[in-house]
User: Which sequence fits this backbone?
C-alpha cells in the first residue's frame, strides 16, 4: 500500500510539473502574442522580452531534468535496470521535442531582416545605423542559403537550440574531468597497457575501418543517385572519428551497481574515457587536414603526415597543460580552509581547460588528463574535507551536465530543422559502427593476450564489444558543425546510433552480463590480490600486465613525480642523485621528511597501493635512512633478494591457492615467507 | 624560519602566476598580430580566434581569483584582518585593469564596420548578405553615438567587459540564495520585527533621502553649469535606490570570525540581506515609473501610486514563486540518493529564479526568499549528507561569484570607457549616502526601542551605521544600464562609494568594534537563553520583540506550514479543523505520524528550536494523542497554565540572573519551576 501511495505521489508531482511546463509555455506564448500586437517596440522592451523567453526556455530544460531525476529515483527505488537515467533523459527530451515541434505554433513575427551589403568581409562586430541610432550586433556565424528561410520560419525552435559550442565549453568539461577524476582505481593501473592499446590503437583502427566502409557506402549512394550533396573521404573519416568515441556512462553505472568484475570495469572505463580524448584529437586533425582554400578533398600522403603531426602535437600539448596546477596545492597550506582549497582546486582545473583552449589546443583532452593527474597527485595534498567536497562537486556537475546533454539529444531529434535521414547511409553506418567496434576489440584482444599473463577471456571481449555505447562526446562532436549536407547527414545518423546503443545496448547490459556468465557482486576490496576468473581458473589481478612497462612507470612516479608534486612519497633528497641536492631540498616539502614512514597513500583502497608494489617489486623499494642516503635494492624485512627472485616468488604464490583479504595480510604473509620458509 | 619559507613559496607561486598571465596575454597578442597579417580570413577561423580570445580573457579572471584565494589564505594564516577578501579582490582587479588599460596596446584592426541601413526597426537577428554568403548577427543593444568611436578604439577593453546581465542572471543569484540559505539563525527570528523595519521602512526612507539630497546637488550643479547632460528627479531616486542596498559580506565575515554578539549579527545580516531585495524592486519600480514615450520626468501622484503598485506586486509575486519547490522534496523519498537529492534541490532553486524571470518578476528576490524558505522547510526533508552537500555547494558558488564580482569591480574602474567623474556629484553622493544611512538607523532604532523590551543600544546603532557597506548588489544595479549621461555618472560614483566603504569601513570593522566596546568571542550556543549586554545589563535574547507578532507567525508556521511542507511538526490531522479531514490526511506524510515525538527539528542549534517556543509559549503547544484528536492548550509537564501566566513566569526568569547553558537545561529548569515552586 505504501508503494502505491508513493507512486501516486510521484504521479501527482509529475502531473503538476507538466501542468507547470504547459502553463509556462502558454504564458510565454501569450506574452509573445501580446508583444506582436504592439506597434512601437522599444529596444529595451525587446531585450527584456528576449530575456524572458530565454528564462522560459531554460526553465523547460530544468523541469525536464527535474522530471528525469524524479523518474530515476523511482527506478532506483524499484531496482528497475532496463532503462538508465541517460536513456530516460533522452525519452523525455524526445517528448518535449515533439510538443515543441508539432503542438506549439508561434505566429511568425518576421523578426529577421536580411540586409544585402557591400561589405567585403564579415566583421565580428557590426554597428547598424538605424535612422540615427546605432545598434550593435555580434557575429553568430555563417548560415547556408537553405537555412535562411528556416530562420524566419520558426523562432521557437531556434530559441531552444543551443550554441553547439556550449557543449564543448560548458557541458563536456565537467563530464570528462569527472571521468578522469574517478579513474583512480588500482585496477586501472594494472591494466594500463591494454587500456592504452584499446584507446589509442583501437580507436584509430575503428576510425579508419568505419571511414572506409562509409566511403564505400557513399560511393554506392552516389552510383544510385541517393546522394543530395558533396560527401568527401575526409567527411567519412570524420564520421569514423566521432562515432568511435564510446561513452562509459550507462554501462558503468550498471556495472557499479552490480559490482561486476573489477578488471572488466577497468578495461571498459579506461578505454571509453581515453578514447574520447583520442576521438576529439583525431576529428580535429581530420578537419585540419581538409585543405581549406581548394575543394580537392583528395587523399595526400603529405597532408596525412601533417594531420598526424597535429594529432601528436595537440595531444602532448594538452597533456602538458594538465600538469600546471600541482605546485600550487603542494606549497600552500590551505588544509585549514576547505572552502579556499575547494575553490582553488576548481579554478585550477578550469584554468587548465581555458589555457589549453587559449593556446589552440584541445581543452577537453587537457581536462581529462588534468582530472587523472589531480586524482593521482593533488588529491593527496587535499584535506579530507576537501577530498569529499571536490568529489561531490564534480559528481554533481557531471550528473547535471550529462543528463542535460542526453535530454537535449532527445529534444534535438525533433527541433533540429535540417535533418538528413538517408536509409542507405543509416544502415551502412550501423553496420560500420558494429564492424569498427569488432575490429577494435577482437584483434587487439588477441594480440594483447599474447603478451598478457592473464588473458582477456572471450566473454569479456564479447561484453566489451556489446558495451561500446555512443554518447555525449559523439553528440557534441557531431553537432559542432552542421553547415554542410554531409555534416547534417552525419548528425542525423549519429543521433540514431546514440539512441540505439543507449537504449538497446544500455538496457540489455544486465541480460548480456548474465548471458556471458560474468561474475557480479564482486567486492573489489576482497579480491585485491587473487581472484578467480569466470571460467573457474584462478587469475592474479596484480600480475595481468607484462612487468617492464609498469615497473618503469611506477618507479618513476613513486620516486620522482609523487615527491615533486605531493607531500607523499620518499623525500627527493633520497631519490635524486647527490648532484641535484640543492634542487631536491628546495622541492621537498617539510612534511615529506616528517612523514617518511607514511609512504602509503591515504586513499589506499582507491589507487595503486604502495604495499602492493612493495610486494610485487620488493627490489625497487627505496628505503632511506636518517641521513638521506640513497640505498636502493633493499626489500622490506631487510633481506636482500634480487629482482627476478622476488618476482618469481611472488608469481609462485598463485599455486598456494590462497584467497587472502586485503593488502596487509598478503604483506605479512610475504614477510613470513621471506623470513621463515627460506 | 618556517614562515619565511611559506612566504617565499607563496611569492614564488605569485611570480609564476603573474608570468603566466603575462605569457598568456602576450600569446594572445601575438596570435592577434599574426592574424591581422592574414588577408583571407575565413569565418570559421575568425570564430575560433574569437573563442580563443574569450578563453584567454576568462583565464585572466580565473588567475585573478586564484591569486586572490592564495592571498586570502596568507591573510587568514596570519590573522590579518585589515583587508577582507573582497577588498583584496578589488585591489587585484584594479591592478589588472591598469595593466589592460595602459600597458597593453593592441593595434586596432578595424574589425567593426558601420552600416547605414534603411531598416525601420532593429531586429533581434540580422542576416547580412556578404557577396552571396549569409552571416547571422544577434542584437547586443543600442549604443550611444559617443561610444561608436570608442568601440572601434580598443577591442581589448571591450573583450574583458562582460554583459551586465551576466551579473544579474549568473553571479548574483548564488550570492543572494546563499545569504537567504544561511539566514536561519534563531536570532534572526527573534529580531524579525526590527529587521523588517530596517529593511523595508529604512531602505525606502534612505532611498528618498538620498534621492532628494542628490536632486539638490544636481540642481546646484546645473546652476553653476557643471552638468553635461540630462539628470532627472527619477534618476536621483534611482541612485538613492541602488545605493541603499547594503552588503553583508565583508563586515559579517569579520563578525563571524570574532564571534560578535549574535543579536547585532542578526540585525545587520537580516537587514542587509532583505534590503538587497527591497533595493532591486524599488529601482525597477522607479524605472517603470519613468514615462517612456515623453521626456517629461515630472512628479505625478498617479504614476507614483502605479510605481508603488508595481513594487508590491513584484515583491509578493516573487515571494510566491519561492514557495514552489517544497512539495517535491516532501513526497519523494530521495534520502537514499544524496546525489539526486542535491541535484533536485539545486534545480528547484534555479527554476524558482527562472520562473520568476520568465513571468516578469524579479528573480533575485524570488531566489532570496527561496533560500530562506528552503532553509526553514526543505532543509528538514533532506538527508544529513545532502544538507552538508547543499551547504557546501552554495558556499562555494557564493565564494566564487562574490570574489569574481569584486575583482571585476576593480577592473572596471579602468576598463570602462565612459566614466563621468564629477567632483560635486561625488562629494554630494558621499554626504547623501552617509545621511541616508543615518536617517535609516537612528530614527528607526528610536522608534523600535519604544516597542522593544530589550533596547538596541546606542553602540549597536553606531556599529550598524558604520557597517553599511555597499557591494555586489549596488554594483550590479548600477552597471545594468550605462547608456545615458546620468547613468554613467551614477555608475562612476557608485564604484567610488563601494571602494570607499569596502576598504575603509570594512577594514576598520575590528577597530570600530573595540572602539564601541562591543563584546566579541561570544559563543552563540552558550547564550541561547540569557545574555548579558555590553552595557552590563542583562538582556534576554528570546524576548526582544513584542510577543504578538511573533506568536501568530510561529503558531501558523508550526501548526500548518511545517506539516504541509516538511515531515516535521504535528500531523495536519491534529491541527486542522475536523471539516478539513480528508485534505489533512492527504497532505500529511506517513513520517509525520511515525515521528510524532520527533517534534524537535534536527538542526536545533541553527533554526528556531521548538523547545524554546514550548518554553516561551507553553500554552500554544499542540500535543496529540494516538487517535489524532486536537488537544490544544496543554503545556509540557501536564500542568495547565494559561497563556499570560506562562509568559509572566517566563519573563520573571530574568530576575534569577541564571546563565544556563543550552536549551535543555533551561527546559528542565522550567519544568522544575512549574512542578515544585508553585
Assistant:
Amino acid at each position: 500500500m505504501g508503494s502505491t501511495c508513493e507512486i501516486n505521489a510521484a504521479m501527482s508531482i509529475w502531473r503538476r510539473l507538466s501542468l507547470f511546463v504547459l502553463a509556462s509555455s502558454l504564458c510565454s506564448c501569450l506574452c509573445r502574442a501580446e508583444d506582436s500586437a504592439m506597434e512601437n517596440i522599444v529596444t529595451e522592451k525587446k531585450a527584456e522580452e528576449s530575456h524572458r523567453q530565454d528564462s522560459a526556455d531554460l526553465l523547460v530544460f530544468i523541469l525536464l531534468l527535474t522530471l528525469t531525476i524524479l523518474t530515476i529515483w523511482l527506478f532506483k527505488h524499484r531496482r528497475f535496470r532496463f532503462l538508465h537515467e541517460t536513456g530516460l533523459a533522452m525519452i523525455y527530451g524526445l517528448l518535449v521535442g515533439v510538443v515543441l515541434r508539432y503542438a506549439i505554433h508561434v505566429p511568425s513575427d518576421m523578426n529577421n531582416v536580411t540586409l544585402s551589403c557591400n561589405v567585403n568581409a564579415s566583421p565580428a562586430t557590426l554597428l547598424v545605423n538605424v535612422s540615427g541610432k546605432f545598434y550593435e550586433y555580434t557575429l553568430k556565424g555563417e548560415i547556408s542559403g537553405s537555412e535562411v528561410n528556416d530562420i524566419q520560419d520558426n523562432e521557437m525552435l531556434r530559441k531552444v537550440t543551443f550554441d553547439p559550442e556550449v557543449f564543448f565549453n560548458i557541458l563536456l568539461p565537467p563530464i570528462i574531468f569527472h571521468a578522469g577524476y574517478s579513474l583512480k582505481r588500482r585496477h586501472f593501473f594494472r591494466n594500463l597497457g591494454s587500456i592504452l592499446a584499446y584507446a589509442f590503437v583501437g580507436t584509430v583502427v575503428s576510425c579508419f575501418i568505419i571511414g572506409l566502409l562509409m566511403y564505400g557506402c557513399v560511393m554506392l549512394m552516389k552510383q544510385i543517385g541517393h546522394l543530395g550533396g558533396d560527401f568527401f573521404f575526409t567527411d567519412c573519416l570524420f564520421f569514423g572519428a566521432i562515432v568511435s568515441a564510446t561513452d562509459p556512462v550507462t554501462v558503468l553505472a550498471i556495472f557499479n551497481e552490480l559490482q561486476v568484475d573489477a578488471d572488466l570495469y577497468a578495461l571498459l572505463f579506461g578505454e571509453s574515457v581515453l578514447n574520447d580524448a583520442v576521438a576529439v584529437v583525431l576529428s580535429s586533425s581530420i578537419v585540419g587536414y581538409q585543405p581549406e582554400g581548394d575543394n580537392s578533398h583528395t587523399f595526400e600522403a603529405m597532408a596525412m603526415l601533417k594531420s598526424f603531426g597535429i594529432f601528436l602535437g595537440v595531444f602532448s600539448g594538452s597533456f602538458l597543460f594538465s600538469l600546471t596546477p600541482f605546485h600550487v596545492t603542494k606549497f600552500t597550506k590551505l588544509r585549514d580552509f576547505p572552502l579556499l582549497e575547494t575553490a582553488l582546486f576548481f579554478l585550477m582545473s578550469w584554468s587548465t581547460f581555458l589555457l589549453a583552449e587559449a593556446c589552440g589546443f584541445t581543452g577537453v583532452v587537457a581536462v581529462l588528463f588534468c582530472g587523472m593527474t589531480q586524482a593521482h597527485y593533488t588529491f593527496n595534498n587535499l584535506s579530507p574535507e576537501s577530498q569529499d567536497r571536490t568529489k561531490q562537486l564534480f559528481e554533481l556537475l557531471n550528473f547535471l551536465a550529462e543528463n542535460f546533454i542526453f535530454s537535449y539529444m532527445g529534444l534535438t531529434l525533433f527541433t533540429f530543422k535540417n535533418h538528413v535521414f538517408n536509409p542507405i547511409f543509416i544502415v551502412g553506418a550501423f553496420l560500420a559502427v558494429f564492424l569498427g567496434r569488432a575490429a577494435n576489440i577482437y584483434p587487439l584482444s588477441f594480440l594483447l593476450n599474447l603478451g598478457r599473463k592473464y588473458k582477456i577471456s572471450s566473454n569479456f571481449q564479447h561484453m566489451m564489444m556489446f558495451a561500446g555505447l555512443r554518447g555525449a562526446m559523439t553528440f557534441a562532436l557531431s553537432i559542432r558543425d552542421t553547415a554542410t549536407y554531409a555534416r547534417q547527414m552525419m548528425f542525423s545518423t549519429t543521433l540514431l546510433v546514440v539512441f540505439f546503443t543507449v537504449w538497446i545496448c544500455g538496457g540489455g547490459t544486465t541480460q548480456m552480463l548474465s548471458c556471458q556468465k560474468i561474475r557480479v557482486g564482486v567486492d573489489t576490496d576482497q579480491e585485491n590480490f587473487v581472484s578467480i576468473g569466470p571460467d573457474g581458473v584462478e587469475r592474479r589481478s596484480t600480475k595481468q600486465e607484462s612487468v617492464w612497462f609498469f615497473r618503469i612507470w611506477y618507479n618513476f612516479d613513486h620516486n620522482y613525480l609523487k615527491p615533486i608534486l605531493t607531500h607523499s612519497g620518499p623525500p627527493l633528497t633520497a631519490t635524486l642523485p647527490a648532484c641535484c641536492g640543492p634542487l631536491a631540498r628546495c622541492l621537498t616539502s617539510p612534511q615529506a621528511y616528517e612523514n617518511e614512514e607514511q609512504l602509503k597513500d591515504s586513499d589506499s583502497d582507491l589507487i595503486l597501493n604502495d604495499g602492493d608494489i612493495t610486494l610485487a617489486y620488493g627490489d625497487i623499494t627505496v628505503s632511506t635512512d636518517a641521513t638521506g642516503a640513497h640505498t636502493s635494492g633493499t626489500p622490506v624485512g631487510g633481506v636482500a633478494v634480487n629482482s627476478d627472485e622476488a618476482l618469481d616468488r611472488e608469481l609462485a604464490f598463485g599455486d598456494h591457492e590462497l584467497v587472502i583479504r586485503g593488502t596487509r595480510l598478503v604483506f605479512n604473509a610475504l614477510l613470513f615467507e621471506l623470513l621463515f620458509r627460506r
